[in-house]
Specification:
Radius of gyration of chain A: 16 Å
Number of domains of chain A: 2
Order of helices and strands of chain A: EHEEHEEEEHH
Helix content of chain B: 55-70%
CATH class of the largest domain in chain B: Alpha Beta
Number of helices of chain A: 4
Helix content of chain A: 25-40%
Strand order of the largest sheet of chain A: 6-5-7
Largest sheet of chain B: 5 strands, parallel
Radius of gyration of chain B: 27 Å
CATH superfamily of the largest domain in chain B: P-loop containing nucleotide triphosphate hydrolases
Largest interface: A-B, 26 and 24 residues
Structural class of chain B: alpha/beta
Strand content of chain B: 5-15%
Shape of chain A: elongated
Number of strands of chain B: 7
CATH architecture of the largest domain in chain B: 3-Layer(aba) Sandwich
Structural class of chain A: alpha/beta
CATH topology of the largest domain in chain B: Rossmann fold
Number of strands of chain A: 7
Oligomer: heterodimer
Strand order of the largest sheet of chain B: 2-3-4-1-5
Distance between the termini of chain B: 50 Å
Largest sheet of chain A: 3 strands, mixed
Shape of chain B: flat
């Protein structure tokens, strides 16, 4: 099974102490009030994904945020995903629609 | 390329998280560590980010990169004064003072940079100004102590859609008409290196009014490996500067090795002393540019190629096929003498351990005398004390140089 997570905030089932400490050390932040995890440090992103996948016992993919339209989309929608070295990692990108359509691009240029 | 070198932080595409972490640190919101180490593959915007952020925040950059010697002495001479005192203009012009930027710290190596890393650590500990370092590979052993005292910020390869988007923007601003597929191909070819993608777009758009996928196919052929042998053959038989230039752009060779090979083979190519002198003059200038390029300043590569092309085209009409030397003599010599050097090192190690001296001192001050003693009379007590093998004794007696 594949689980899609939003890097700005995601929930995890209750984790044992060692796993929680490991996540925090790797650079994951935990908001106690909202019970939401978020990624604070991206240096060990591969290890973070691996640990979360271990906790959820399923494959983990992070949704991508489009820098032009702000839409969240999965890497599987992108035709370059086989060439991407940071596939399924939570980094900014441009969604396939915005890349093809000039409308958003011109709006984006106006913002600059 | 220079026109689209990022001038503002927003101009740098991708790595938003790394950028935010770095800016927070620079503004003092995340000052848990005194220095920051930005690391990641080339062409992702590490140096550009430091330059843009320093400009926007009002810092004056004091930079040391791979083209500078970064020994303990050199680091102390440049970096220490820059980090020990607050600049006077901080009170008058609103400048925030100096910022020390050490680019390509993973390139600190060899004898000329001896003591450089420990000097940097000392400077970071005592520094009154921000210290920023950049590296491509932070995992080398030498940088381990540096990593402990730095905030680490990782940069990832820029994603293809972001590079395509940037190329679209440049095309729009420069009024270049380009097919989407052409831009896609340039971006794919760059392998996440924005700098090379912009360079490719520039070179292709200069030749074509409307950039099509077909025009970008030359990039694929450029990236096809033209090995050292083919490059040398083409280089020496070329009939014009343009021919050499286009060959060099397509060649996939180690430039240091290539320039050594060219240097070795020039006397075979030019028999006329005047032509040879002129060709060597061009090669020496090319070597100068190679030094300046280091691992960062690839925009100077065209000058390196220009000088090498000039050297190949000093007298195109005088070309006669010849058997060229490859690999370079220096590399062949190192290969041939490897056994001898290993044996001498082993002897120096034995002398060093017994006489409490370094390998270098043993080699230069002890070996000549031991050699003379052994040549005059086979001193068995000396041989047994040093525990020299018969091969080592024979080597010492027969060796010409040490």
């Amino acid at each position: 099974m594949v689980v899609g997570l939003n890097p700005k905030g995601f929930k995890l089932p209750r984790v044992e102490k060692e796993k929680f400490v490991l996540l925090i050390r790797l650079g994951v932040d935990y908001n106690r009030e909202q019970c939401l995890y978020s990624i604070k440090n991206y240096n060990n992103i591969e290890k973070i994904i691996e640990t979360i996948a271990g906790i959820l016992n399923s494959e983990v993919v992070f949704l991508q945020s489009c820098t032009r339209c702000g839409k969240n989309f999965p890497c599987s929608e992108c035709k370059y995903n086989n060439l991407c070295t940071s596939r399924d990692m939570p980094f900014s990108c441009v969604c396939p629609q915005c890349l093809r359509e000039r409308k958003h691009f011109e709006e984006y240029l106006e913002k600059l | 390329m220079e026109k689209y070198r990022p001038k503002k932080i927003e101009d740098i595409i991708g790595n938003e998280e790394a950028k935010a972490t770095f800016i927070e640190w620079l503004k003092g919101k995340r000052k848990t560590k005194k220095a920051v180490l930005l690391y990641g593959p080339p062409g992702v915007g590490k140096t550009a980010l430091v330059n843009a952020a320093a400009k926007e925040s009002g810092f004056t950059i004091i930079e040391m990169n791979a083209s500078d010697t970064r020994s303990e002495k050199a680091v102390n001479a440049i970096a220490k004064p820059a980090t020990s005192y607050l600049a006077l203009d901080t009170f008058t012009t609103g400048s925030k003072g100096n910022l020390l930027f050490l680019d390509e710290v993973d390139g600190i190596a060899g004898n000329e940079d001896r003591g450089g890393v420990s000097a940097i650590i000392e400077i970071v500990e005592k520094s009154k100004v921000p210290v920023i370092m950049a590296a491509n590979d932070p995992d080398i052993d030498k940088l381990r102590p540096l990593k402990k005292i730095c905030l680490l910020v990782r940069f990832h390869q820029i994603r293809l859609p972001l590079i395509i988007a940037l190329l679209q923007k440049i095309c729009l601003l420069e009024h270049v008409k380009a097919d989407f597929e052409a831009l896609e191909h340039i971006a794919q070819n760059s392998k996440g290196d924005v700098r090379s993608a912009i360079n490719d777009l520039q070179s292709l758009s200069e030749e074509n009014h409307v950039l099509t996928l077909l025009d970008t196919m030359a990039l694929s052929s450029r990236n096809k490996d033209i090995n050292m042998d083919e490059t040398l053959r083409g280089y020496f038989s070329a009939k014009s500067i343009e021919e050499v230039s286009s060959l060099l752009f397509r060649a996939s060779v180690d430039y240091d090795e290539f320039i050594m090979s060219v240097s070795d083979n020039l006397p075979r190519r030019y028999t006329n002393p005047d032509e040879l002198a002129l060709a060597y003059d061009y090669v020496s200038k090319a070597d100068l540019f190679r030094g300046r390029i280091g691992t960062e300043h690839w925009h100077l590569l065209k000058y390196f190629f220009n000088e090498l092309s000039e050297a190949a085209a000093v007298a195109p009409e005088s070309y006669k096929p010849f058997e060229f030397i490859s690999p370079p003599i220096r590399i062949i010599t190192l290969f041939w003498t490897k056994g001898k050097r290993t044996m001498l090192n082993s002897i120096c190690g034995k002398i060093g351990a017994l006489c409490h001296v370094s390998h270098s001192k043993a080699k230069h001050e002890f070996v000549p005398f031991i050699k003379m003693m052994l040549q005059n009379q086979k001193s068995s007590s000396l041989i047994s004390w040093l525990e020299l093998t018969p091969e080592e004794v024979d080597f010492l007696v027969k060796m010409n140089r040490y």
